[in-house]
Amino acid sequence: MLRRVFKAFHYRDFRLLWVGACTSSIGTWMQKLAQSWLVLQISGSPFLLGLDAFLGEIPIFLFSLLGGVIADRMDRRYLLLVSQVVQMSCAFLLAALIALDLVRVWHILTLSFVVGTAQAFGGPAYQALVPSLVKPEDLANAIAWNSIQFNLARVVGPVLGGLALTQLGAAWCFGLNGVSYLAVIVSLLMLRTRFVPQTSGTSLVASMRQGIHFIRRRSPMESLILLAFLMTVLAVPLIVFLPVFVTDVFRKGPSTYTLLLSVSGAGSVMGALIVAALGNIRHKGRTALVMLILLGLGIVAFALSTSVALSCVLLLFCGVALIAVFSLVTSLVQLITVDEMRGRVMSVYNVAFRGGMPIGSLLTGSLVPVFSAPAVLAFNGLALVALGTYFLLLHRRVADL
Predict the structure, then answer these.
(1) Is residue 164 within 8 Å of 30, Cβ to Cβ?
(2) In CATH, what class is 2-190+208-393?
(3) Which pLDDT value is given to residue 140?
(4) Contact 272, 323 (CB under 8 A)
(5) Tens digits of per-residue pLDDT, 150-170?
(6) Helix axis angle, 12-43 relative to 139-167, nearest 10°?
(7) Rounded to 5 degrees, what angle do the CA atoms 189, 193, 197 make?
(8) How far apart are CA 207 and CA 204, in angstroms?
(9) CA-to-CA distance for 53 and 236, rounded, in angstroms?
(10) For position 200, what pLDDT does the model report?
(11) What is the DSSP string of 107-124?
């Protein structure tokens, strides 16, 4: 069982990239905690909190397709290195602005957009690089472990970020995040795996069209991408608007926000471990849809809860369900994609998955002041239940995979 769970770590390059990415993700979550709290404290506006998340994710819509084309035309490591250096520079700049007491909300919003732009180019390259580090039969395990590193960081990062925020100040959260990027930069430089693109005289626009045509020729792929988009529109606001629940529903402070973020991350780690242990299971599509329905029910229950203890249990459950759906859907997309198209396909998937986040955040941020956070999140949960039921019983292209 243990050998099956840790199968992807038998590959040297995967181990290196995983450790570097995990270290960087811990720093990112330290900054996310401080940044969300800082925006809410400076502005007192849930809308600006949603706008910050929107500006950090909307570049996925604007530039990810271009990033995917470039990831298929050059060494993906170099593209990732440039992305990491840009993000590191933004973290250090924000740390300096906070330390000098010069930071304003517009600084945070602007740099969120810059970081999002770097991620729009780095994201497709990273997702396209991971399958080249392991054998196809171990891909589901590698994707699950990739989710584990991200969500393990969601547990460790907020704890360290909460300590740094309360004991040292917000500037330390941003500065330590900047330092954490060095780990992934070093790991990328040490990789032996190389992607050598095929020489082609096709233009960037023609390459984009080839990627879109590849997706349209595989009808389950279209359904998976649509599902990923709608899932993130409806589910991710649960995490983005936790500060609003902490202040308006529970009447607590940063320590409770840290606790909730950490519990959600712990649930995600548990969900990814379950997927890793199951390995290359049959009926991935059906399993993902059942978990999506359970996720919706968990979000409804969380929205109606007024107890911190019960909300922690529900967030743990939602974390398990969310990452299980994400890992299974991502595995299906990767498994039906050929390597020479992987950057372009994953860029479209990024547009759907990551692009759904800013739309959900901005829409929820606009509705929360009108209907309250619990009412809006409860509606989102019911919509997820309806979505999962539709794909499970009526539109069965995903359920049959």
Answers:
(1) yes
(2) mainly alpha
(3) 75
(4) yes
(5) 767 777 887 788 888 888 888
(6) 40
(7) 105
(8) 5
(9) 10
(10) 58
(11) HHHHHHHHHHHHHHHHHH
Is residue 344 over pLDDT 80? no
Which residues neighbour 123 within 8 Å (Cβ) at sequence distance 6 or greater? 60, 64, 67, 346, 347, 350, 354
How large a percentage of the chain has pLDDT more than 70?
94
Of 271-275, 280-284, 287-291, the poorest mean pLDDT is in 280-284
- Residue type present at position 19: V
Average pLDDT over residues 298-316: 92
Q: Where are the domains of the chain?
A: 2-190+208-393
How distant, in Å, are the alpha carbons of 133, 216, 267, 283, 329 from that of 332?
17, 15, 22, 10, 5
CA distances from 232 to 327, 358, 379, 387 (A): 13, 9, 14, 12
Question: How confident is the prediction for the chain on average, in pLDDT?
Answer: 83
Would you list the DSSP string of 69-87?
A: HHHTTS-HHHHHHHHHHHH
The pLDDT of residue 293: 93
Measured distance CA(87)–CA(329) in Å, rounded: 27
The whole-number pLDDT of residue 137 equals 76
E strands of 7-141, at which residues? none
pLDDT at residue 195, rounded to an integer: 63
Give the global pTM: 0.69
Distance of alpha carbon 18 from alpha carbon 16, whole angstroms? 5
**Cα–Cα distance for residue pair 326/284, rounded to 1 Å:** 11
Q: How confident is the model at residue 82 (pLDDT cuts 50, 70, 90)?
A: very high
At a CB cut-off of 8 Å and minimum separation 6, what does 223 contact? 391, 395, 397, 398
pLDDT of residue 201: 60
User: What amino acid is encoded at 70 in this protein?
Assistant: I
DSSP per position, 327-394:
HHHHHHHHHTS-GGGHHHHHHHHHHHHTTHHHHHHHHHHHHHHHH-HHHHHHHHHHHHHHHHHHHHHT
CA gap 330, 341 in Å, rounded: 15
- Counts of helices then strands in the chain (DSSP H, E): 17, 0
Rounded CA-CA distance 370/367 in Å is 5
> CA-to-CA distance for 334 and 288, rounded, in angstroms?
15
